[in-house]
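Re: that chain you flagged

S.,

Sorry for the slow reply, it's been a week of failed gels. I finally had a moment to sit down with the sequence you sent. For the record, here it is as I used it:
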Amino acid sequence: MKSAASEMQARSLLDDLISMQLDGYCGAAWGYNFDWQSRNFFAPRGTATIVPTAFAARALVEGARAFQVEEYLALARSCCDFILKDLPRPVSTDDQICFSYSPYSDTKIFNASLLAGEVLAEVGVMTGEEQLIDYAERGSATSSSINVMMVRGLMEQIQNKIGWTISTRHLFSFHLSG
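Prediction finished late last night. Pasting the structure tokens below so you have them in one place:
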């Protein structure tokens, strides 16, 4: 049940979130407040990445729905500009697209690309922008085709004691000890 106090708290948290937005990108973006090292790249504190940006966009979309505040939807739409203009696309065809994790890496990270697609789809539905929905569908197709390949090879991977793959780069494959 929504109360005046819970609405005030939610709006205050959204205001805090908005104040943490990073500058220097084509759209609204967020990053971690700590250095982050993956197996493939280093992201210094404050580097915009898709994961925190997608979660911020999700909060903004929910805020726009709950409180009918146009500024929240406008910022969520701006996150789409970050996704479409700042993130490299290691895969980009008429049917498929894969967004990278950050503007400074072209690594194919499927869950990050799916988060980007979720933002594009949610905002596209709310704004009526079919192009955003098309990008989301293309991102989903890329991850789906990779998942089909992963499922087909799962039994072989288990037999070879190789762990689950989250990326096309061998650096992101995890090996189980026998």
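What I noticed first: Confidence is low (pLDDT under 50) at residues 148-152, 171-178.

Talk soon,
D.
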